[in-house]
Design goal:
This protein has 2 domains: 1-31, no CATH class; 34-339, Glycosidases (TIM Barrel, Alpha-Beta Barrel), CATH 3.20.20. Helices cover 44% and strands 16% of the residues. It is built from 14 helices and 10 strands. The chain has an 8-stranded parallel β-barrel with strand order 3-4-5-6-7-8-9-10, surrounded by 5 helices. A two-stranded antiparallel ribbon has the order 1-2. Helix 7 (144-157) runs parallel beside helix 8. The two termini are 35 Å apart. The model has no long low-confidence stretch (mean pLDDT 95). Bound molecules: ligand IDC. Residues 100, 135, 170-171, 210, 232, 234, 260, 266-268, 294, 299, 301, 303 line the site of ligand IDC.
Length: 340
């Protein structure tokens, strides 16, 4: 009896201490509900915020795959479960490159990888972003017909899954590619196809100049609900100017998501910029922006989360099979952010 009373008192003290720092409703919410799809359901956009099915603000935080054509082997069910349990991610982004030997040149195999990973993410009760990862192909209209076909099939497959979020063009880029003339018209064709199958799904739309022109999107918004415009940054390259663009977009009422960011410069390689990344993270926290880090891969490059020495056959070699034992500087930094 005595033990129970002491236990209750300690519990109350802990709750009171937590409440000192966070609004009570938020604390209660975190105790009662989980941070995953079962308790948050279909997400929707309200003003510039993402909200859950209980109409509370919701933040997606997680990591992105590298190109599926190169680094999909390590995206196993066990590793995704590990990311959920030891990193607290609630979203995993599936980066399906269109060019560079990606989807366009190997449709069936790459599509099957997307489906396999998405199914695992869904089984694990997390959100999955299916990313049509344009990059070297500059203009989302380059493979527009393929995009229509792909999103029609995928949104039909996942029509009743609140887990799945569609990102319809990673990073439009190139001097001649503009929001008004290229990206917006493309989005106006793709969004209705997805929504016809899955009316409530969240859709992320990339902005020109590798997702830096959120201001252009904010000045000429899409006429659909539940759209997020994406901003991407690499801490070593992008700073105050890009944050100003985001602030401008938010001030105009455009909802923003950081669907990709890296701790390095924009090449994805080299050392990590901790101080500059910290400035960004403060900014994201202040504005309650959702983010996804690049990349969950073991490629030998600074932005990769895992060292190249990690492989899946370690059980046979007697070495650890837990990727947490092979984190790069970037991996350690990002894990720490997610654990907070
Ligand atoms: C980079 C990868 C690199 C790969 C290259 C292919 O890190 O290993 O060789 O793509 O083109 C982006 C892109 C993302 C880039 C990343 C780093 O969305 O695909 O990945 N980056 O350059 N935008 C800004 C940076």
């Amino acid at each position: 009896m005595k033990k129970i009373i002491v236990g209750i008192i300690i519990f109350i003290i802990i709750i009171v201490l937590i409440c000192e720092f966070t609004p009570v409703s938020e604390v209660l919410d975190n105790i009662i509900y989980n941070n995953y799809v079962s308790d948050n359901g279909w997400l929707y956009v309200d003003g510039t915020s993402i909200k859950n099915k209980r109409n509370k603000n919701f933040t997606l935080k997680g990591v992105s795959s590298h190109g599926l054509q190169w680094y999909s082997d390590i995206i196993t069910y066990d590793n995704l479960k590990n990311l959920k349990e030891s990193w607290n991610i609630n979203v995993f982004r599936i980066a399906m490159y269109t060019s560079e030997n990606g989807y366009i040149s190997n449709k069936e195999e790459i599509k099957n990888k997307v489906i396999e990973i998405a199914n695992n993410v869904i089984d694990l009760d997390m959100y999955a972003i299916i990313d049509w990862h344009i990059l070297r192909d500059n203009d989302p209209n380059t493979y527009k017909e393929d995009s229509k076909e792909f999103f029609n099939e995928i949104s039909n497959l996942y029509a009743d899954k609140p887990n799945v979020i569609y990102e319809i063009c990673n990073e439009p880029n190139g001097n001649s590619i503009s929001w008004d003339k290229h990206v917006k018209p493309y989005a106006e064709e793709i969004i209705p196809i997805i929504r016809q199958n899955s009316p409530k799904s969240l859709i992320i739309v990339g902005t020109p100049t590798w997702c830096q022109e959120v201001n252009a999107a904010a000045d000429n918004r899409l006429d659909f609900d539940n759209i997020l415009y994406s901003c991407h940054f690499y801490a070593g390259t992008h700073g105050e100017d890009l944050r100003k663009n985001v602030e401008y977009a938010l001030s105009k009422g455009a909802p923003i998501i950081i669907s990709e960011w890296g701790t390095t410069d924009m090449t994805g390689n080299g050392s990590i910029y901790t101080d500059k990344a910290n400035e960004w993270i403060d900014f994201l926290n202040k504005n309650n922006l959702s983010w996804i880090n690049w990349s969950f891969s073991n490629k030998s490059e600074g932005s990769a989360i895992i060292l190249p020495t990690y492989t899946l056959i370690n059980e046979e070699t007697g070495l650890s099979n837990d990727f947490n034992d092979y984190l790069t500087d970037s991996g350690k930094y990002v894990k720490n952010l997610l654990k907070k």
